[in-house]
Amino acid sequence: MRLFQVDAFTGDAFAGNPAAVCLLGGPAEPRWMQSVAGEMNLSETAFVEPRPAGYGLRWFTPAAEVALCGHATLASAHVLYQTGLAEPQQQVRFDSASGPLTARRDDGLIVLDFPARPAAQAPPPPGLLAALGVASPVWTGLAKEDLMVVLGREEEVTGLRPDIAALAGLGTRGVIVTAPALRPDADFVSRFFAPAVGVPEDPVTGSAHCTLAPFWAQRLGRPALTGYQVSARGGTVRVRAAGERVLLGGHAVTVFSGHLSDAALPADGVTLHPPGVGGGVEKTTGPGDGADPPE
């Protein structure tokens, strides 16, 4: 069973957001997927399962399954293109907990088509501003799973030193903090904290940009924008707000790939991914049978 680690929303290794991508040949048991994600200990591990009309896609943090993840979807599409499981000009369809998602290549980028998650203005819940160390936000709101706090200047976002334990108790998936960008290569900056699902600070968050894109498109008066997530690793997300959808564009780099050992496969057996595009012999194996996984 092939396993990849990919840095997403970056053109350089060791930047952007690392995701693990595991190629399945059929359905896998969620507890086993959660164990693999815990072992990888990255913000997300994606599990890609071939289906007649595309691929099933699920995402797990080290602590929980999540309903939407941008960078691990970008990483998954990158792996499918890199391995030849998807043709260069092919649009890849993923079935997910957030409905159908697509990925395509466009002028060197991989472009994802995701549902928009606009935030509605709302007062900050008790403890949020204190946990962030913020006194006077410009705007606060609530999206589908996340709180959002808008600050006035980029340096306020980069200078945050939040109380991660306090953020974990707010009852949402995460907290988006954003501001207009000072840097010339971006329109807005952001950071994303999700300790409630095992990710203290996410390096680059595609799903958060499903909220950031409609917010900044409305305020800046144009649909196509560039966001830069100012985490320690940093990453660039090109966005286009399109009504109920958001297009997210970025680069990705494979850092390494390998295979899960027999000892790491589910005890009740698992179908390995076939070696070629739409073909190959699917093979069921389990720990200790001595079978070599296909390349």
Report on this structure:
By secondary structure, the chain is of the alpha+beta class. The chain folds into 2 domains: 2-102 and 252-285, Diaminopimelate Epimerase, Chain A, domain 1; 120-243, Diaminopimelate Epimerase, Chain A, domain 1 (Roll). 19% of the residues lie in helices and 38% in strands. It contains 6 helices and 20 strands. The strands form 2 sheets. The protein has an 18-stranded mixed β-sheet that branches. A two-stranded antiparallel sheet has the order 19-20. Strand 7 and strand 8 form a beta hairpin. The radius of gyration is 19 Å and the shape is globular. The N and C termini lie close together (9 Å). Residues 274-295 have low confidence and may be disordered.
Strand count: 20
User: What number is the mean pLDDT?
Assistant: 91
Tell me the CATH topology of the largest domain.
Diaminopimelate Epimerase, Chain A, domain 1
How many helices? The count is 6
Overall shape: it is globular
Radius of gyration: 19 Å
Low-pLDDT regions: 274-295
Broad CATH class of the largest domain: Alpha Beta
Topology:
Blueprint: E1 2-8, E2 17-23, H1 30-40, E3 44-51, E4 54-60, E5 65-66, H2 70-83, E6 92-96, E7 99-106, E8 109-115, E9 120-121, H3 128-132, E10 139-142, E11 146-150, H4 154-158, H5 164-168, E12 174-180, E13 188-194, E14 199-202, H6 206-220, E15 224-229, E16 235-242, E17 245-250, E18 252-259, E19 270-271, E20 284-285
Parallel strand pairs: 2-3, 4-6, 11-12, 13-15
Antiparallel strand pairs: 1-2, 1-18, 3-4, 4-5, 6-7, 7-8, 8-17, 9-10, 10-11, 12-13, 13-14, 15-16, 16-17, 19-20
